[in-house]
Amino acid sequence: MDVNSHAEELASDLGVDKAEVKADLENLLEYSVPIDEAKQSVRRKHGGGGGGSSPTPESVDLSEITTDHGNVTVTVRVLTRGTRTIRYQGDDLTIREGELADGTGTISYTAWQDFGFEPGDSLTIGNAGVREWDGEPELNLNESTTVAIADESVTVDQEVGGDRDLVEIAAGDRGRNVEVRVLEVESKTISGRDGETEIREGVVGDATARLPFTDWDPRPELEAGASLRIEDVYAREFRGVPSINLTEFTTVTPLSESVEVAESAPRLSVAKAVASGGMFDVELVGNVLEVRDGSGLIERCPECGRVIQNGQCRSHGEVDGEDDLRVKAILDDGTDTVTVVLDDELTAEVYGGGLEDALAAAKDAMDKEVVAESIAETLVGGAYRVRGSLSVDEYGATLDATGFEAADDDPADAARETLAEVRA
Ligand SMILES: [Zn+2]
């Protein structure tokens, strides 16, 4: 039976115009709705009764939906749609996820099959399941769900589509599109769920921020210096910072014009930076209060790179430690404090000598601590401008420094200014 015959049958059953019924049916079929469900939906629309297994739940506004709801019918605008594969009970499933909106609010959704809708579409979604995700209600679109084009376009306040600046990207975002320049990239082999897999990792930037990325389906277009439009990425949290993830569904298009990348990192007060929960690239200015234990000449486990105490690694037991230089300093700007970690190169600059010099000094003094003491003499009480990646966890806030230099401005003044701006 073709659409025409179905339409004819329905039209005569319902006593309505065949052309109208046919248009409705075609709308639904365009969204891959199975013909039986499509016919039920058209019957309901024309008052012919559902005739299906599950009655259509009452229509609700998105703002009314709570995690106590079972199934709902909503009329919404699709804001975003992302695609990815997840492993579910041993099978790889392709799911679509994103946000929907109506005049009253927004809600996240997961579609377990391809209903064919796109950002911007106005839809009536029937019999969608409500589940709790991160404490919030989310819609589950599954095989009992019907998706049809809404009778009227749904007006929403939210931006339709996934285009975002990097500074707007947050962990949990899905179906996002960015225009960026690749700043760093390297290949890496990991042991994934399917054995050894090659991935690419690096850093991308735009005029607003820099963020780390992982390409799970490595493609050659992502080379250092390339300006690209990257569509359909998702963001997840990596050490307190949102990280951009490219999947097999992500599309990458070279841009003819180079994407402008901010040279400087956003400057924040320590309190505001810590409150953000983590930033990939931030600048802080403060006074060094203290150089902590575990600074200066240290030893690392050759297996895992962790700093070891008395030749003992927490994971690998007794090991032959490798010498290295590091600084862990407490930086304070009057709003809060953060632990700043300097790597071997930045430590060498602060110390005024490299590993060989440090080892020689320790040998002369017959005490390794002289290196940390010398660094503390230089740093403590001074004002410094620090740039790097901030992570925040239950142990506190840590900034892995990529830049460290004496500050010419008074950190307390700067912090007061930043606070004043925040309050204004
Ligand atoms: Zn180890």
Automatic annotation (TrEMBL):
**What UniProt keywords are attached to this protein's entry?**
DNA-binding
The family database entries (CDD domains) matched by this protein are listed as: SoSSB_OBF (cd04491)
Disordered: annotated segments: 40-67
Tell me which Gene Ontology terms the entry assigns under biological process. Answer: double-strand break repair via homologous recombination; response to ionizing radiation
| SUPFAM superfamilies in the cross-refs | Nucleic acid-binding proteins
What domain of life does the native source organism fall in?
Archaea
| GO-annotated molecular function | DNA binding
What is the name attached to this protein's record? Answer: Replication factor A1
Q: Which source organism? A: Halorubrum cibi
